[in-house]
Amino acid sequence: MDGKSLTPQEEKLKQLKEILPEVFAEGKIDWEKLQATLGENINFNNERYVLNWAGKSESFKVLQTPTTKTLEPVKEESENFDETENIFIEGENLEVLKVLQKSYFGKVKMIYIDPPYNTGNDSFIYPDKFSETKGEYEKRVGDKDEDGFLTKDGMFRKNSKENGQYHSNWLNMMYPRLFLAKNLLRQDGVIFVSIDDNEVHNLRLVMNEIFGEENCIGTVCWKNKYGAGAKTKGFIDVHEYILCYSKTEIQNIESILTKEQSKVYDKSRDERYESRGGFVTQPLMTNSLDDRENLQYSIEFNGEIISPRKQWVWGKKRLIEAIEKNEVVFKKKKNEEYSVRAKVYLKDINGRIRKGKPLSLLNGPFNQEGTKEVEELLGPNIFSFPKPASLINFFFGFTINEKDDLDGIYLDFFAGSSVSAHAVMDLNKEDGGKRKYICVQLPELCDPKKEAFKAGYKTIAEIAKERIRRAGKKIQEELEAEKEKKNGELDLEPTEEKNIDLGFKVLKLTESNFKQWQQTQNKDAKELEEQMRLFVDPVSESATTEKMLYELLLKSGKDLNSKVEHKQNYYCVNGNELVLMLEKATQEIIEKVISEQPQKVIALDKLFKGNDQLKTNTVLQMKDSGIEFKTI
Q1: Is the pLDDT score of 332 beyond 70?
Q2: Domains and CATH numbers, the chain
Q3: pTM for this structure?
């Protein structure tokens, strides 16, 4: 194991080798062979439509550079750590996205992010100058205060509109993060990105480049304000945008009905109102005509014969049954012809509220709703401009390709106050789903002059974690109240009927628990000697068994919710998928490990220190048993 994250170019080359092995020579692409294979579809002409900006090539280098960092579990800040499948990660999101590549590649159902809008007052992480080396950049973004928190002065750069590379800086920040995020999406995965007029044009072009123009589902114009701001020079700004893209081309998308759409159903009611709500109607006569004679027939109603001008939508048997169940509406028009329409209820026969096609214009929820939510949970002026949870609820509630999946992973790597986590818990409360979230937030220092700092929150990440705790508690209380009302009994557990996961694991981005080999310059003998001395034991001094366990899970491609069973001196991961030997190695332990019949075993090399024979025998035994064996 090299201890490094999966890089995008490795995955792309692997995919290309699978579909076009003939264009590779000695492991590299032969461009002449590629052109011969694809013909005129390969364009070597420099005059072409392309998005470019200052530093774009550097942003490619940034995303292609692997990370050696890892995630460290922090149980004391977590809620129900051992049982929950929700994840909150504290750390710089670009590095975190790299860390997650192996374990979550192609596993995330939906992503929502609310990145900096580049208004001219934003501060965010980007290379300070394009000549800045990776080492200089890492040193700067690693600047910490005396308590170990990342300093805003060291890590962030204000991107004012007077900056000559104002748009370029923002693009350099966004491009690698969006690129890596795409890798994490499932084949039917979807990403939603909030933005305003400052960068919507550039964001659309970047998303087209990364996801493909054909995978643009649409741009939602979200009216989020009532209309204040009469002193503005131009139009009063009352909207923002949410850009929606899929990883691959999707066939169909449906959304939860908006309040306006739901109200339409309430205009008509019948005897099924209590169980199925109101209804709208849709025509049962069609203007199209095909060869299906079973759709061309007449029916009798009130002593009159009714025939369609061309044909019916349903067959005769189905239509007659619907009429008998009072699911069809007949209305005579001015020309004495009948309009025959089917009732479509707000709820289906299982009591689930119907979904519909999403509109590109969303009227609310308004900003005040998001502010009110945070105030009710944390107090006033703790977090500025939070999105309403119901907004994220709306998008996370989309049905893709008619598959109502209630068990996906939802990612937000600009978590802010963790509104996405709140939305996922709300959705699960509504329909009993098993959705899981991963929220990533930088431990950005709060301004000492602001209310959040005065209330005891030192970082934005602390605000985010506390919101999840309090939102979870509120949902739990609501579930208890629902059960009390339904059953007339007190003190019932809130998870008896709806087993909602309201906990979360906290993990923090840290340096690797294993020392990394540093390339020595000019083959300096003393530096080389020092490297050799350090690598007598590659495990860092601060490493613990638990920290190493989580790092090896991630670097073996196992997710953070893998089932880990601690046996005598070794750990079994997801049954027999992987065994980790981190504590002790003896012949007896080796034999027990082999008896588990694992697919792969990773052991600390230091466990065999002073016993080369045991290590040699272990290698041979593992090979004979068909087990992949590695030491670190």
Answers
A1: yes
A2: 49-253+363-506 (3.40.50.150), 259-353 (no CATH), 528-631 (3.40.50)
A3: 0.83
